[in-house]
Amino acid sequence: MKISFVLLLLLVSIPVWSQDWKQMNDDDLFALARKTAFDGDREQSREMLRLILQRIPEYVEVRTFLARTYYWDQNYTEARQELNTVLAKLPTDREALNLLFDVELADEKKDVALELAEIGLRSNPMSEEFLYKKAVVLVQLGRNEDAALDLARLILLNPAHSQGVKLMTDIRSAGLKNAVSMQYGADLFSRTYRTAQYGAVQLMRSGTLGTGIIRVNYSNRFSSTGFQAETDAYPKIGRAMYGYFNYGYSGSVLFPSHRLGSEIFLKLPRSLETSVGMRYMYFADGHSVAIYTGSFSLYHKNYLFSFRPFVISSKGSTSFSSVVNVRRYLRDGDNYIGISGGAGFSPDDGRIQSSNGLSSDAVYQLKTQRVWFNWQKTVRKSFITLMNIGVVRQELSFSVGDYVWITNFSVGIKKLY
Q: Which end of the chain is more exposed for a tag (fewer CB within 10 A), N or C?
């Protein structure tokens, strides 16, 4: 009986409470709606806000806050509609312009966001928030020099603007186009093989035509030591297209005698990118491997999702492998954490499991699964550190169906100048 009475009391109280807020005056109801939204019940908050707007359609603060709840829920269409209603009557309303900028930027409409920042600056040229917002979207559009001019004005107005100072520092660091880097890594085998070591020293130079790289690779495995010289080029072909070309040479059995690579990358709408290309490797024992590859990538907010398949052809046999990569950018393109996974023997991988260290056509038929984590961070503006750690489960070339576990790690440092 007592439980039934409590349930009855609750059922009666719910509509009473509902009627209570519907009878509140508009300002008190707005305060309750804000509290309700901040407490996480945004649908209930929107019901309250819509009731206020039915009574007072021109209540700008209420309509803007309603748009904000839509923005929080990534409902950009509804948020945009409410904010445009406000700006139709008050074209320079600061809060509505600010929020609409955030909506358009979150919805990847960078050109629209830039226009909104400029509207805000036309009505208030000394606005710190619009100067900063304009600089942010200019950086995302790749217009760093224009962004630096707005940031210089911002820092002149407020030298203590921490976000502006940080973004200016990032732009200056990004202006350091050239780099020298060193990397060292090792593979630790669960059995059969001794630890393999590898490393590289690289020089990169960027210009208006693209980026060029020269690199010397080092490897010590299977009781042998070898070096390989490589050069990479990433020429700009157009606003939405760039290329990749590679050549490598080695006199060591641990590397291909000749390595060639080419690929064309195309930037697509909606932050997509795709590519198609091939690799060719010729070995000292006279055999060669042709590899056909491509990629499909999606940039979403601070994330990169990419997929790369390989079709490997050698001596009339064909094998397949693939890699999936997820990366989260922490601040800019030089700072990120990521995780990658793959299946099938990687054609660019140095872990060739034959008794003498030579590659063979059979090695590309090996069953392999791997996962690895990568991390990169800027240190002291012009230095970048990186670290990779992973685990590989790989079939042995001399004992098909038998596997070895490989733990690999690498560390590196890059100096920008």
A: N
Q: What is the pLDDT of residue 208?
A: 77
pLDDT value for 341: 95
Whether the Cβ atoms of residue 146 and residue 159 lie closer than 8 Å to each other:
no
CB atoms near residue 96 (< 10 Å)? 24
179-416 has CATH 2.40.160.40 classification: yes
Long-range Cβ contact pairs of 75-84 (< 8 A, separation 24 or more): 76/103, 76/106, 76/107, 79/103, 80/104
Instruction: List Cβ neighbours of 264 (8 Å cut-off, separation of 6 or more).
Output: 237, 241, 242, 243, 244, 275, 276, 277
Angle at 333 between CA 332 and CA 339, to 5 degrees: 110
H/E run at residue 310: strand 303-314
Q: Which residues face 275 on adjacent strands?
A: 265, 295
Q: What is the percent of the chain with per-residue pLDDT over 90, rounded to a whole number?
A: 45
Is residue 371 over pLDDT 80? yes
CA distance 150 to 110: 17
Residues 6+ apart with CB under 8 A from 174: 144, 332
Q: Determine contact, residues 105/115, Cβ cutoff 8 Å.
A: no
In 3D space, the residue among 108, 78, 80, 107 whose CA is nearest the CA of residue 96 turns out to be: 80
Domain boundaries, the chain: 2-174, 179-416
Is the confidence at residue 136, as pLDDT, over 50? yes
Residue 353 has pLDDT above 50, yes or no: no
CA separation for the pair 207, 332 (Å, rounded): 20
Locate tokens 């059969």: which residue? 192
